[in-house]
Amino acid sequence: MRLQQLLAQLGYLPLTWTPSSGTAISATDARGQLSAAYNPPAGSFAWQSGYPWALTSQWKAGSANIVQVGAIRAFESVQGLTMDGTAGRTVWSRLLAAVAKGQQNPNGYTYALASQHYPETLTIWHNGRVVLKTLVNTGIPGRPTADGTFPVYLKFYFSHMKGTNPDGSKYDDPVYYASYFNGGDAVHQFFRGGYGYYQSLGCVELPWDAAKKAYPLLTYGSLVTVTGPVA
Q: What are the phi and psi torsion angles at 122 (to 5°)?
């Protein structure tokens, strides 16, 4: 519970946390903060306006969940730590130090929802507001894009994606603005004659302009939800 309270206070969660009257702890009160880690003060969480049910339904105060994992990964990235999504001793030490120094999340909170219902779209929220909605392509029936929610864990401005096509031939495609979220699946730029259809081998393909805008928003730890698998 205290982990979530502090992550919310620093802007790594899309929620605010308000302590009950008389339970506020000074950010620079080291003993008070340490005690609160074991005995969290009373208070309440509230969602920042604008986020969809696909995200809000995955949150549970006081229990581990994917929203919390993404927040921990985002904090670890900002702090230059290994992004494992687990709040170990080092994360707690850095978290308490960040609270004492008032170090807010410099990236804000981003969430992306890829809908595989025709026509396929990607919607991105940043700090509770929709900042991008675009047609996209996801995986064909033989190479579907798995549904679920995943945190961004790897990013490349430019790279070559290599692999094997369904017919056995090899591919080596240059792509820009890739944000990987589930194994080899990434949100990235890819040139196509059209968008909104099942065309990729698992990735979420965007037109150039949309991919360029999405790339800086999808920072490490940002959650990407994929819904509506191929029928």
A: -125, 125
